[in-house]
Design goal:
The structure is a homodimer of 210-residue chains.
Chain A lengths: L2 H16 L6 H8 L3 H7 L3 H19 L10 H17 L1 H5 L1 H6 L2 H27 L7 H25 L8 H16 L5 H15 L1
The structure holds a DNA duplex (18 and 18 nucleotides).
Chain lengths: 210, 210
DNA sequence: GTCTATATAGGGATAGAC
DNA sequence: GTCTATCCCTATATAGAC
């Protein structure tokens, strides 16, 4: 494996585990058993590393936020959408841990992240309108707008919320956090679902959380 | 006004405006036209300042999260609860901007903040159960648990969410952000409200956001 | 209480040899 | 591509005079 890729991989792991502000270029070099000079041969500076990682993140998130085409979105689209979003956030959680800090240092990152956020809201709206269209749920336009914003907020910050609530030592498996997050978002949609769909969701949720 | 208090006041303002990690003790001293040495006469270190500000924050938030006693909570309690919470967060928003960063540097702060979060959820639950009891809304125990968590997430992170969405330059007045936040949280509760209460809330929301 | 001057430490980044 | 050595800068914090 090329040194450049090893640096990216290790940086991502250290950032995710310890928070980007606490990881210096020396830490990264140490962890890889290479010299700081070598690291700076491959990357201009620390921001350069972060930018590369952000590009990877952005590609993956864009893929997750693809609006289903050529057909009316349904409940399965919602499930898939949420899982892909949560997994991408988990993989690049260092961005979310110090979001304000990181975005304020780099205007381009800020612009791109904002676009992702708007897209998150937009995709949620498309899917919700699809659910209304096929008769699975009932909601006004204003309901959908507010609901889509709330879905975006919970999806974006759920992992941060959980990291504070659980003690650093005794936190459960990673997958639990994601599953609970998906459940929380579905709980936002549930009250708008019509009788049958709502019962189905309740049933699914019970199994899902066991 | 005593120098000590001026330091606290100015620190809070600078932290809120620029983010705590970017404000050094020298910045604070500069802004006050005092020497760094003078600042360190009044406070052992930067963390000492943050701890004091956190204590102020905690007292104010604890007050906001008082469960209404001796009577069944109603819709007005929910409004009051949300307004007080949002205003407290706004006043000490520097804590929320770099929450992970700040809490990870100080175990005591982390423990106390976690308690506040649990209390946020708990108070929301108490109020929601009150609403069910007086017949204003219908929800199962599981509905209420999930809803209370979501209320806490949105209330905690709404301002962060909005700061990213709005451009740093052209953001609206401060009060707008708070009002929108309260609206978003009420939108979480709305679908559980019974006919009359729901219509009333819709009416109120329209006026509220105009 | 307040100042000036300074010690200390650490992170980001580069030069030049190999 | 990789290393060693080093420089610069900034932030925290202290010492000692006034």
């Amino acid at each position: 494996m090329k040194t450049r890729d090893r640096i990216l991989q290790t940086s991502l792991r250290l950032f995710n585990d310890n928070g980007e502000p606490r990881i210096t270029t020396n830490h990264i070099a140490d962890e890889l058993d290479i010299s700081p000079g070598n690291l700076y041969y491959h990357f201009r500076n620390k921001d350069d590393i972060i930018n590369l990682l952000f590009q990877q993140f952005e590609r993956q998130m864009e893929a997750a936020l693809q609006v289903p085409e050529r057909r009316v979105p349904n409940m399965e689209d919602m499930w898939l959408y949420l899982h892909l979003v949560f997994e991408t956030i988990w993989e690049y959680r260092f961005l979310y841990r110090d979001l304000d800090n990181i975005l304020s240092r780099n205007k381009k990152l800020r612009t791109h992240f904002r676009r992702i956020l708007e897209r998150k809201i937009h995709t949620a709206e498309i899917i919700l309108r699809g659910l209304v269209e096929v008769g699975v749920m009932s909601a006004t336009a204003a309901d959908i707008a507010a609901l889509a914003r709330n879905i975006a907020v919970v999806a974006t910050y759920w992992l941060n919320f959980q990291r504070i609530r659980t003690t650093p030592a005794a936190d459960g498996a990673d997958s639990d956090h994601l599953a609970l997050g998906v459940y929380q978002v579905l709980a936002l949609v549930a009250p708008f679902l019509n009788g049958d769909a709502q019962r189905l969701l309740r049933q699914l949720s019970l199994e899902y959380l066991s």
